[in-house]
Amino acid sequence: MPEYLIILAAYLLGSVSSAILVCHLMGLPDPRSQGSGNPGATNVLRIGGKKAAAITLLGDSIKGLLPMMVAHWLPVSPLVLALTGLAAFLGHIYPVFFGFRGGKGVATALGVQFGLYWPIGLSIAATWLFVAKGLRISSLAALVSQGLAPLIIWWFWPAPEMIVMQAIITLLLFWRHRGNIHKLLSGKETHIGN
Fold this sequence. Notes:
By secondary structure, this protein is mainly alpha-helical. The chain has helices at residues 3-14, 18-25, 41-48, 50-73, 78-93, 106-116, 118-135, 138-156, 160-176, 178-186.
């Protein structure tokens, strides 16, 4: 398989919106028109409950995990592995199938990180859980865990390609959370369970 095909396949898989599909199949409102308007697991939790949110979270994570597993299995070069992870993430936040209006990318990024090397994913997920449990703010947990992700990758797999991939993901994720950052700074961000 030509290496560019795995990158393209990763982007196309990332472009499949788990939130929109889950809400459609479960008879829930389109997440783009309800709650925060974001097609992601946190918004699905608000409009559809824990089961729908869990399925969405799993689907979004698999979109990042599966291409990385295939890339490892082939195997591909470190550069192509990094581009595969970045493509899956870009597909989620800028999906070709949904007018390039996607989610914020936290679950897909975590799938990429688990697919890169499971201790990396586990460390980032544990950071998210620690912050979320302590402060009960999903967006803050995402920002802290993904903000630390380049350092975590550097610790476990100090390859320039992987660090640059994660740095781009982190910057894009912060950009996608700019509204949440504004709410955090003004003390208006929603808590988990509210």
